[in-house]
Amino acid sequence: MQWSRERVLILVSAAIFLLFGSWLFAVPTALxxxxxxxxxxxxxxxxxxxxxxxxxxxxxxxLVAQARPAWHRASLLLLACAIGGFAVGRLGGIILAGTGSxxxxxxxxxxxxxxxxxxxxxxxxxxx
Length: 128
Hints:
By secondary structure, this protein is mainly alpha-helical. 77% of the residues lie in helices and 0% in strands. It has one domain. Helix 1 runs antiparallel to helix 2 (41-65) and helix 1 crosses helix 3.
């Protein structure tokens, strides 16, 4: 299978989701390092489900999709929407809190840039 911009973006994204999903499933308390206190078994389970399981599920989808050129464009749209959703949620949280730490602003910048790249790649990709 040929390497393309779309396939590389999908694989890099899959690797990032796989890394963070595996880490936060295995060590959900890692989020305490950025100030998220997990004070109950339910909170730990929820982190494993959302930060772990959802990210692992996205990684699995992307790993399948990268091998199917007909899925590349839809995968880029999924990534633009998902990563863009992270950015919108983070910006909304900063606005509602009235403040944002340097880490939150940095993550927002990364997410906004990544979402923009995925949206550009989606628009540039040819329809199957």
